Amino acid sequence: MSHAPALSPVLEAVRARIEARSAATRAAYLARLATMRRDMPPRRKLSCGNLAHAAAACSAGEKQAIAMGSAPNLGIVTAYNDMLSAHQPFETYPAILKAAARDLGATAQVASGVPAMCDGVTQGQPGMDLSLFSRDVIAMATAVSLSHNVFDGALMLGVCDKIVPGLVIGALSFGHLPVAFVPAGPMPSGLPNDEKTRVRQAYASGELGRDALLEAEMKSYHAPGTCTFYGTANSNQMMMELMGLHVPGTAFIPPGTPLREAMTREAVRLVLVRAAEGLGMGEMLDARAFINAMAGLHATGGSTNHLIHLVAMARAAGYRVTWEDFADLATVVPLLARIYPNGSADVNQFQAAGGLAFVTRELIAAGLLFEEVPTLAGAGLSAYAKEPALEAGRIVWREPPALSPAPTILRGMADPFQPTGGLALVTGPLGRAIVKTSAVAADKQSLTAPARVYEHPEAFLADFKANAITADAVIVVRNQGPKANGMPELHALMPALGVLQNRGLRVALLTDGRLSGASGKVLSALHVTPEAKEGGAIARLRDGDVITIDSASGRLDVAVDPAELARRMPAVPNQPSAEEGLGRELFAGFRAGVGRADEGAGVFWAHASA
User: Fold this and answer.
1) What mean pLDDT comes out for the span 403-408?
2) pLDDT per residue over 470-486, tens digit each?
3) What is the chain's mean pLDDT, rounded?
4) Quick count: other Cβ atoms within 10 Å of Cβ 4?
5) Which one of 342, 451, 499, 565 is most buried, counting C-beta atoms within 10 A?
6) Interacting residues of 219 by C-beta distance below 8 A, sequence separation 6+
7) CATH number of the domain at 423-599, out of 3.90.1150.10, 3.90.1700.10, 3.50.30.80, 3.40.50.10860?
8) Are residues 543 and 452 in contact, defined by beta-carbon separation less than 8 angstroms?
9) Which residues does 59 contact at the CB level (< 8 Å), separation at least 6?
């Protein structure tokens, strides 16, 4: 591995803190992997009947290889469906991966599929109440996929919001195996993001009709591939790069191109190399990998959803990550990218300007990433600071531009967009919450204003449509946490809030729910913990209470005497039931057993004692 510059003391301190608080859980996790490697080696303890079933549908040569264990066998876990644009390209991937494995003397089988829902389809709909819980369903489905114990490594085909975190969590239960994450790439650029925002706000204010809105949305989301804004899906791809789980540079290569197919084939080769070395994904992902992902979120203005998902992913590897770890990293990792919703550019323009290779190089040079870490590429994180290209049908990696050719999209360490990271932690009498500062103008990153309290989004939208909000306000939308209704994204609020802000009002959002990774330019304190359903202080707020959200100082305050706040009875939500309809009745156990947002909002470790 290459020699890296001196690391920031903050990175070292965060690493030491995570390792200290996680000593017991990480040791237990690694011990479990060692036991699996020793006692449950792939295929070796399967009976003849077990092996015959596993290979029954294979060719004669593959049957022999799988049954005799004479060649590595890779499991393909796919989130393919043809409703999600980001996952539609995966239809052809199994054939590509199997052919690549054969060329390298190995075999590959589709282990199973996992569910993959689209938050873009369910935004503002009852189905959104299943969205966060789908992550843990995907994790369990991944475990089922690999439970046949016939695979020497795995290839994870997934891109979008809950899907990649779910695949990571599930794969970490098989962390003794090497794993590669294989994305599909972004769709071509469509309607410019500024125009999309304008049309949405014009529709929200009644200036345009539904036909105009639908036309704009169809021009924005129009082809196979990932949506091109920098939401949770594309933040996932950034994290997989900086955690070393991708072929270097694979995140934002368009689908259906020769380079994309070459990178897909390369994933097979690299997994086989790591399998020969005996390097499993769980051993590869140590505390440094998770810190690198956190640093990447700050530097690129990534999705707030990962303040939940990364915590859960780390816990699956035995690490306890806290929101304070994110907050400390924000003090030293600057914002280097402006990608919608943090700017007007999309990920294709970001990639053309130098993309993740540029960001990775800049952060490594500044000592803001751990460079000497194990990765799928096997050469430290510097391998991810280069851009892939095809020469005579072979992949080569080149240096990114020395200077950004588009300083409105991408900048170096010498001239960042802001000196701190794109996410902030605010705390106080109302609990803890997350603010995405990268999308909010500097003069709007704090607000003190009276509360307007709503029990569900529809009530706020009704007031907005009735022009009932005419003064500065902190809009409180509560009973939207994991235990209440599965913590749906509340992106449908943003056009209305944006209109109020454009009218000259000072407004902010305070909620125990989530926003889309494409959250807009309005100050928003999200994931309030404890949530209202658990009796958190947000349940005791009333109209007119003066609330302060200050991302710079980290304050989340209310000008109510603490004794008075404690005496108030928590509000009883008068919202539509989240318990039945569109499958929600099947998730009652999830709502009852889910953990807090700041602990990953998961069902697997909600009641863990260690």
Assistant:
1) 96
2) 999 999 999 999 999 99
3) 93
4) 17
5) 342
6) 190, 191
7) 3.50.30.80
8) yes
9) none
Alpha carbons 256 and 395: distance in angstroms, whole number? 16
DSSP string, 435-454: EEGGGS-GGGSEEEEEEEEE
List the one residue out of 286, 249, 81 whose CA is nearest residue 163.
81
**What is the Cα–Cα distance from 404 to 387, expressed in whole angstroms?**
14
Residues 298 and 363: their CA atoms lie apart, in Å, by 11
Q: Which of 426, 400, 432, 402 is nearest to 414 (CA)?
A: 402
Query: Residue 1 pLDDT more than 50?
Result: no
SS3 (DSSP) at 550: strand
Residue 609 has pLDDT above 50, yes or no: no
Given a cut of 60, whether residue 107 has pLDDT beyond it is yes
- Residues shown for the chain: 610
Provide the residue ranges of all domains of the chain, joining segments of one domain with +.
9-40+71-188+223-398, 423-599
Report whether the peptide linkage leading into residue 341 is cis, meaning its omega lies within 30 degrees of zero. yes
Q: Look-up: residue for tokens 């049957």?
A: 63
Q: Return the bridge partners of 249, or none.
A: none
Q: b/e string for 446-465 if b means 16 or more Cβ within 10 A?
A: bbbbebbbbbbbeebbeebe
Q: How far apart are CA 319 and CA 311, in angstroms?
A: 8
pLDDT per residue over 435-451, tens digit each? Answer: 999 989 999 999 999 99
CA angle centred on 471, ends 212 and 125, rounded to 5°: 40
Q: What's the pTM value of the predicted model, to 2 decimals? A: 0.95
Environment class of 566 (CB within 10 Å of its CB; exposed 0-12, middle 13-18, buried 19+): exposed
- Kind of pairing, strands 394-398 and 387-391? antiparallel
Lowest mean pLDDT among 30-39, 121-130, 507-516: 121-130
pLDDT band at 608; cut points 50, 70, 90: low
pLDDT tens, 189-242?
A: 888 878 888 888 888 888 889 898 888 888 888 899 999 989 899 999 999 999
Q: Classify residue 56 by burial, with Cβ atoms within 10 Å: 0-12, 13-18, 19+.
A: exposed
* The pLDDT value given to residue 186: 94
Amino acid code (one letter) for 490: L
Range in 312-326, 468-482, 571-585 with the lowest mean pLDDT: 571-585
CATH code that applies to domain 9-40+71-188+223-398: 3.40.50.2300
Count of C-beta atoms within a 10 Å radius of residue 70: 11
